[in-house]
Amino acid sequence: MGLAATMNLRAEHDREKVTTSTHMSALAHKNFRRILLIKPSSLGDVLHGVPVLWALRRRYPRAHIAWLVGSSFAPLIEDIPGLDEVIRFDRVKYRRIGRSIPVTISFARFAADLRRRRFDLIIDLQGLLRSGFLSWACGAAVRIGFGQAREVAWVFYTHRIPPIRGDAHAVDRNFRVTELLGCADAPIDLSLPVRPAARDSLQSKLAELGLPPGADFLAVAPGARWETKLWRLDSFAAVIDTVHDRVGVPSVLLGSPQETELCHRVASGCRSRPITIAGKTSIPELVAAVDAARVILCNDSGTKDVAVALGKPLVTVYGPTNPRRTSPYGRNDDLFRADIPCSPCYLKKLSRCRFQHRCMHEVAPQPVAERIIDLWRHQLRYNVIHVRNPDLAAAST
Questions:
Q1: How far is residue 243 CA from its own chain's centroid?
Q2: Which of 105, 144, 193, 244 is the most exposed place for a label (fewest CB within 10 A)?
């Protein structure tokens, strides 16, 4: 039976009671023993789910807590002390479900293996058809997901997270699940550990490129998943040179293997000859690099969320996305964007923009450089644990 057919069958015949905000108290008194979080991607989105993990650990100190995550992002979370198990999900392979018989069989076996683990609570923070189906396939009596999940994933849940009116940050949106489980008073903990081995290997790589161990540097991550999120490369170069001229420190360009060329193009436009380690670091080494940097400059990308989780000073440039939803959590003063009526538009392709990418082009490099220099001189460290805003609970629909 195909996945779509299974979904339709589930929607038609599922007789379990689906609860909303009026039926929350029953779950608050349950003591779950085996819990699965589902949040496969992306880097920043995975980090937006970390506060839920910490809250679950505080609420269920003896429970076995597992996280189903995309294989490439597993190293990001597998060292978090409150997590007992990481279940790797091959997102690239399973995109071919229904188009490849071997892949479809493999997915069915993967789902069957999840069911054998006998989870009694599933929390789907991805909210898509595939993740919703997997939550149902686990066979748990309690399956929580977003009431407004896309691709009708909500049909697979027994309990639905009520939405927040208006624009809510992704962290706050995810954290609504704690209201159903009786732990909404937990702090929003963004903490992310840094591997000692990753620190050491990063320092070795930087030393080979001429940066002494322990030296200060500005970390610059000019990449992003959407091409519309990319700030001008010459603007990045201008900031790098200005900071070098005014403060006298080097910059280190960070990026994935796919962003190596982009970083080299930024470097080629600089007078100050920044170091480039794009494509040369693992995810744990990326985390270590952000932690070692004195200040971070990036677009609206996962690097921003790593910096937030480590309490590092950073400056971000926004254009097509809504900062209220994905800004550095609790730190909007470090954000630059052009005040134009077409932003946010959520367009991913430049070819669809009718305004010559004004949202990013109109962010000038000089104010960005000045803010970085200000952060540099103050040597700030930010909190990674936040008390939840009580008004959010009253803002649900």
A1: 28
A2: 105
Identify the CA nearest to 328 among candidates 348, 346, 302, 353: 302
306 touches 282 (CB < 8 A)? no
Query: What pTM was computed for the model?
Result: 0.90
- Quick check: 8 and 161 in contact, CB under 8 A? no
Where exactly are the structural domains of the chain? 3-189, 196-386
Cβ contact 383:309 at 8 Å: no
Tokens 């201008």 correspond to 238
pLDDT tens digits, 95-146: 889 899 999 999 999 999 999 999 999 999 999 999 999 999 999 999 999 9
Q: Does domain 3-189 bear CATH number 3.90.1150.10?
A: no
Of all residues in the chain, what percent are helix, strand and coil, respectively (each to 5)?
45, 15, 40
**CATH classification of 196-386 is 3.40.30.50, yes or no?**
no
Burial 150-175 (b: 16+ CB within 10 A, else e): eeebbbbbbbbbbbbeeebbbbbbbb
Q: What is the pLDDT of residues 199-214, one digit of tens each?
A: 999 999 999 999 999 9
Placement of tokens 């990063």 in the chain: 202
How far apart are alpha carbons 97 and 115 in whole angstroms? Answer: 19
The domains spanning 3-189 and 196-386 adopt the same CATH topology? yes
For 386, counting Cβ atoms within 10 Å of its Cβ (0-12 exposed, 13-18 middle, 19+ buried), the class is middle
For the chain, state the CA radius of gyration: 22
Maximum alpha-carbon separation in the chain: 68
Length of the chain: 397
Cα–Cα distance, 348 to 113 (Å, whole number) = 36
pLDDT along the chain (397 residues), means of 10: 40 41 71 97 96 97 98 96 96 90 95 97 96 96 94 94 86 95 95 97 97 95 97 98 96 97 98 97 98 97 96 96 93 89 96 95 97 90 75 43
Residue 157, amino acid: Y
* 3-class secondary structure per residue, 161-177: ECCECCCCCHHHHHHCH
